[in-house]
């Protein structure tokens, strides 16, 4: 006894929805006759169907998150150096750790170089380039010390990352994870679609 429903699209925002063998009812942005359940079901399908690609009813939208831990960086414990979901790369905060887990000596300038190198190593391992950086946050124990060495730090940035500058923030903090660390850098990159 159930009748199939026919749908014909008629320009922007209009369609004709009709049970087979009956008079057509116009489905437009206003004045839609929704008294028949078949019409409401058909309209729902027309509205929702375009958004269902890649959707699992049990789990929701499907996204693959890759966790990247380059062997040239210190072994992470409880975090990933980078994650990639589609064309977005999130880069974990990096301090001036060497691959063996020691913090570089010598103050803010060599620590900035090592921390930025670590960020860029994780970025490259995730398939990105310095010009893909969209946002960088720099956490600092001593902002005046960082500012006093701004020319040297700027030269290091340009040497390692170029001049396609991302949005940046420098934030003063009272402590970082490693007591010897003076700076920590984290970022987000957007890469071209694969």
Automatic annotation (TrEMBL):
GO cellular component terms, A-Z: cytosol
Superkingdom in the source lineage: Bacteria
TM region positions: none
InterPro entries: RutC-like_sf, YjgF/YER057c/UK114
One MF term in the entry's GO annotations: deaminase activity
Database matches in Pfam families: Ribonuc_L-PSP (PF01042)
Family as reported in the entry's similarity comment: Belongs to the RutC family.
Name of this chain's protein: RidA family protein
């Amino acid at each position: 006894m159930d009748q199939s429903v026919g749908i014909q699209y008629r320009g922007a925002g209009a369609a004709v929805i009709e049970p087979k063998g009956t008079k057509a009812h116009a489905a437009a942005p206003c004045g839609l006759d929704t008294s028949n359940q078949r019409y409401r079901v058909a309209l729902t399908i027309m509205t929702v169907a375009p958004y269902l690609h890649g959707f699992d009813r049990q789990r929701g939208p499907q996204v693959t998150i890759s966790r990247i831990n380059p062997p040239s960086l210190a072994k992470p414990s409880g975090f990933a150096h980078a994650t990639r979901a589609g064309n977005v790369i999130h880069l974990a905060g990096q301090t001036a750790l060497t691959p063996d887990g020691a913090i570089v000596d010598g103050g803010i300038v060599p620590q900035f170089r090592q921390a930025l190198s670590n960020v860029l190593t994780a970025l490259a391992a995730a398939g990105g380039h310095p010009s893909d950086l969209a946002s960088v946050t720099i956490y600092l124990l001593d902002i005046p010390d960082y500012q006093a060495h701004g020319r040297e730090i700027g030269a290091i940035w340009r040497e390692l990352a170029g001049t396609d500058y991302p949005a940046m923030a420098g934030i003063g903090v009272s402590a970082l994870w490693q007591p010897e660390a003076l700076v920590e850098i984290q970022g987000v990159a957007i890469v071209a679609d694969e």
